[in-house]
Amino acid sequence: MREQVEQVLEQIRQTLRMDGGDIALMDLNEEEGVVYVQLKGACAGCPHAQATLKMLVERNLVELVEGVTRVEPVGG
To answer: What domains, with CATH codes, occur in the chain?
Structure first.
């Protein structure tokens, strides 16, 4: 599961980097399907960070990686 999550995050990174941001996989609870990520760069302080996590990151991970149920942010 971790490799699949990293592949999807790499695709998402391309989008985030266009706006000066980035994302890092911090942890993964395969049993519960929870992916813990940290937004970096411009994304870290962006007022749209929560929408980015739900509408871009979580939507793609749940859709493309079997077993992922949600994404949770980790503070930086």
So the answer is: 2-73 (3.30.300.130)
Q: Distance (Å, rounded) from C-alpha 70 to C-alpha 14?
A: 21
Encode pLDDT of 49-61 as tens digits: 999 999 999 999 9
pTM equals 0.93
Q: How far apart are CA 26 and CA 22, in angstroms?
A: 13
Note whether 61 and 35 are within 8 A (CB): yes
Q: Is the dihedral of CA 25, 51, 59, 29 positive or negative?
A: positive
**Using CA atoms, how far apart are residues 63 and 57, in angstroms rounded to an integer?**
10
